[in-house]
Amino acid sequence: MPVLIGIGTGFNITSKNQKYMTKILVCISNVPDTTTKITFTDNNTQFNTSGVQFILNPYDEIALSRAIEFTEASGGPVTVINVGEASTEPTIRKALAIGATDAVRINAKPHDAWFVANQIAEYVKNNSFDLILTGQESIDYNGAKVAGMLGELLDLPSVSIIKKLTFDGNTATVEREIEGGKEILTIPLPFVAGTAEGVAEPKIPNMRGIMSARTKPLNVIEPVEVKTFSEVLSYETPAPRGQVKLIPADNTTKLVELLHDEAKVI
Amino acid sequence: MPVLIYAENAGGKFKKSIFEAVSYARAIADQDNTTLTAISIGNVANGELSLLGKYGADKVLNVSNEKLKNFVNQAYASVIAEAAKKEGADIVVLSNTFSGRGLAPRVGVKLQAGVADGAIALPEQSGGKFTIKKTAFSGKAFAVVELTSANKVIALVPNSYKVVETNKTAQIEDFNADVKETDFKAMLKEIVRATDKVSLPDAEIVVSGGRGLKGPENWGMVEELADLLGAATACSKPVSDAGWRPHSEHVGQTGIAVSPNLYIAIGISGAIQHLAGVSSSKVIVVINKDAEAPFFKVADYGIVGDAFEVVPKLIAALKEYKA
C-alpha cells in the first residue's frame, strides 16, 4: 500500500521499503553571466544589459541538478518555474535541456523577492508539490529571500542555505552552514530549501536533452497582483582603489610595517 | 515606534557581528528618537545578555523556553515577529549571518515588511523616504533600495558597521513566546563547530589561497599565516572545485562574499568572479608571481614573487613583529 505524503500527486516511487509519491518544483532565475562587468545606465538607475549574456542562475542549476539526481533514482516529475518576461525563455529551455520535465513562466518582471515569492506561492497552492528547491540566492540581487518567503507564505519549513541534501523515505537530511561550523537537520517533506555549492554537481545538458527541451511543455501564466514593498532607486559600483603599492619580495618586513603603521589592520 | 534587534547567540555567546548589529540598530533608534529592544532566544546567561545594553539596547527580551534552546528557523521567526508586534516595533534588525538570512524573509512575510538584506550602511530617512544601501551583483555593485512598507526588516552585513559602546544598562525581561507545534517540523540533529578555526563570513582578517599553491599539501603555510594573524582561511573557486579545500572556504561570486579589514590573496590571479566576493575588503594584499595578474589592479599592497618563498618570509617577519 503506497504511503502518500505531502501535498503532491506525483508518481509512485520506492525508496528503502517505503513507497511514496514525489513531485519537485525548482524555482529558477535568469541572471547575468558570472563574467559580466556590471555597469548601469540612465543615471545609474538601470542595469546595463547591453552585450550581457544571461544564464541560468548558478545556484539554481545546483538545485535543479539535485532534483534531477533524486528523481532519476526514484521517478517523479521536476517542474521549473521562472518569474520573468519572454526574454528568459532561453534560460528556461536550458533547464528543460538539463532534465526538467516541464516549465512554467509567470509572465512578469521579477520586481523583488516578495513579488516573486508571492507569484510562486500562488502557483504552488494550485499545483501541489512535495519539495520546493531554489538556489540560495540569485547572483544579481543576492537577497536569499525567496526560499524563506515561500516557506512562510505556504506555512512550510524552510532552510535558506544548504550544503547537502539527502533523502530517506519522506524525510530529508539537510546540512546547513553556520559561522564556523554546520548544523545537520531532519525535515519531513514537503519543505523549501535554498541550495548552495556542495548539494550537487551542476549537470551539463546532453544532445538528447537539448533536442527534447524544444518540445517539452512551457506554460506561460499571467501574474497575480502583489503589493510592492521595495524599489531599487539607484546603483553604485565600488569606489576604485588607489594604485597598488608594490613591495620587494625579499622585504616582507616592510609589508608587516605598512599593514601595522599605515593600513592599521594588524 | 521602537526598533527590535534579534541578537543571535552561538553556543550561549554573542559574536562581534551581533554587537555591530546592536550598535547599528541603536543608531537607527536614535534617528527615530525611539528605544531599542533586543531579543535573545536560547540559553544565554544574564552576564552575556547585559552586554546587549552596553552596545545600545534599552531592554532585552530573553526567551529561554527549553523548546527554543536550539535554532529552528520557522519557530524563531514566529518568536521574533511576535516580539515585534508586542513591542510595537516597526523596524526589525538582524545580522546577515547564515541563520539571519533564513529568518529575515520569514519575519518579513509575517510582518508584511519590506526586507533589506545585505545592508551595509545606516538607512537614510528624508522626505518620507526610507532608503538603504545593500550589496548587489554579488559584490560587484551596491543598490540603494527604498522600503515602501510600514514595517521594515534589515539584515546587516558583518564588518560593515563599527561597534559603539554606550553607558546604558539594559533591563532584562523574560519573554514567553507562544509557538505553535507546526513550527517545529525541522529537527536539529547535530551541531558541528570547528572551535579551532576562525569563521570566514565574519572574520576580520582572511588569508586565501589559489591554484598558485599547486596542491592541498601546500596549505600548511596558509594556515600558519592565518593562525599568526587570527585570520580565517579561504580559497578561490578552482581550489574548492578541485577538492583541495571545502566549498565553505570558497570566496567569490558563487561562494561567500567577505568584508574583512584585511584580505591576503596568495597565488590567486583575480578572476572577476573572485574579485566580486572580496570587493568590500578594506585592505587587500596580493602575493602572486605573475606581475600581470588582474588581482594587483584592485590590491592596496602587492608582492610580485613566488608564494613558496614569500609566504615563509612573511611568516618569519610577522613572528619577529609579534615578538
Write the layout of secondary structure elements.
The complex is a heterodimer of chains A (266) and B (323).
Chain A: E1 11-15, E2 18-22, E3 24-27, E4 30-32, E5 40-41, E6 46-47, E7 54-56, H1 58-74, E8 78-84, H2 89-98, E9 102-107, H3 113-126, E10 131-135, H4 146-154, E11 158-168, E12 171-178, E13 181-188, E14 192-195, H5 207-213, E15 218-221, E16 230-236, E17 245-246, H6 252-262
Parallel strand pairs in A: 3-8, 3-10, 8-9, 9-15, 10-14, 11-14
Antiparallel strand pairs in A: 1-2, 4-7, 5-6, 11-12, 12-13
Helix pairs in contact in A: 2-5, 3-4
Chain B: E1 3-6, H1 16-31, E2 36-41, H2 46-54, E3 59-63, H3 73-87, E4 91-95, H4 98-110, E5 114-119, E6 124-126, E7 129-136, E8 141-147, E9 152-156, E10 171-174, E11 187-193, E12 205-209, H5 220-229, E13 232-235, H6 237-241, E14 262-266, H7 272-278, E15 283-288, E16 301-304, H8 307-322
Task: Note down, in words, how this protein is organized.
The complex is a heterodimer of chains A (266) and B (323). A nine-stranded mixed beta sheet of chain A has the order 13-12-11-14-10-3-8-9-15, with helices on both faces. In chain A, strands 1-2 form a two-stranded antiparallel ribbon. Chain A has helices spanning 58-74, 89-98, 113-126, 146-154, 207-213, 252-262, and strands spanning 11-15, 18-22, 24-27, 30-32, 40-41, 46-47, 54-56, 78-84, 102-107, 131-135, 158-168, 171-178, 181-188, 192-195, 218-221, 230-236, 245-246. By secondary structure, chain A is an alpha/beta fold. Chain A has a single domain, classed as 3-Layer(aba) Sandwich (Rossmann fold). Chain A contains six helices and 17 strands. In chain A, helix 2 (89-98) links the parallel strand 8 and strand 9 (102-107). Chain A is 26% helix and 32% strand. With 323 residues, chain B is of the alpha/beta class. Chain B folds into two domains: 3-184, Rossmann fold, CATH 3.40.50; 205-322, Rossmann fold (3-Layer(aba) Sandwich). Chain B contains eight helices and 16 strands. In chain B, the strands form three sheets. A seven-stranded parallel beta sheet of chain B has the order 5-9-4-1-2-3-10, with helices on both faces. The longest helix of chain B is centred in the first third of the chain and has 16 residues, at 16-31. Chain B is globular and about 60 Å long. The interface between A and B is large, with 83 and 102 residues. Strand 13 of chain A pairs antiparallel with strand 11 (187-193) of chain B, so a sheet runs across the interface.
